[in-house]
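Fig. S4 source data, part A: sequence.
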Amino acid sequence: MHTIHLVWWRVLLASLSLWIFFGIHKRLKSIPRKYILIFLGIGVIVGLHWLTFFGAIKASNASITLVCMATGSLFTSFLEPLILRNRIQWFEPIFGVMVIPGMALIVNQTELSMMNGIYLGLTSAFLAAMFSILNKKYIKSADETTITCLEMSSAFVFISILIPFLSVELDGFSIIPTGTDWFYLIILSMVCTTFAYVIAMKALHHLSAFASNLVINLEPVYGILLAWLILKENKELSPGFYAGVFIILLAVFVYPILKKRLSKI
C-alpha cells in the first residue's frame, strides 16, 4: 500500500470513529465558526505531517525517521515563544540545540540513498512542532475529542484532494487494504491515532508544547528497539548512528530533571 493510501485510511477510520461514537455534530453548535476553521486548518498540517512521516520511512527506514522526529523539540523551542508569545525559558533552546550534533552524526553515517528520508523526517518534525504549538494556543476553545475529530476530518479531506494529482505516481498500488492490512489499520487509526491524539490534547492543558514534544522524543527508544527486533534494521546502521541517537536522547532525559530542579529555586 502506498504512503498516501495508508494515511488516507488512517485519518478516515479515525474521524469516522469520532463522528459515530461521540456525537460530534451536536458539540459543534457550541463552537464559534472561527475556531472550527482554525482546527480544520491545523488538520491540514497534521495530514502533511503524517504524509512526510510515512514517506520518510519509505525513503530510509523506521530508525532514521524516528530520530529525525526527535528534532521536533529543537523546532518547538524556537517556534513556541514566537507563536504563543511565551517568555523563553533560557535552557529550552539549549536543549533544542543539543539535538544538532546528534543529527550531524546521524547524517554523516547515513547512506546517500537514504538522505531523502532524512529531509522528509525533518519536515515531518517541523510540522509536528507547528500543530502541537497551534493546538496549545487554541486548546481551550473546544473539548479535546471535538478538536481531534475536526483535525482528522480535515486531514482526510485534504489527502483526498491530493490523491488525484498523484495518480501517475500511484500506478500499481492498490487503495483497498487486503488481509491483515485491515487489522493493522484499525489498530493504527483507533489506538495510535484517535486515542493517542485525544490523550496528547488533554496533556496540553498541563504541559507546554515543548515539554509535550520532548516526551514524544522517547519514540526513538522503543521505535529503534522494535526496528531491531522486527525489521532487523541494526544491520543497516553504523555505530556513529547510535552515537547520534545517544546525544539526542540525553537531551530528552536531562531536560525534565533540570526543569524540576530550577523550578525549586
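Fig. S4 source data, part B ends here. The CA atoms of residues 75 and 179 lie 39 Å apart.
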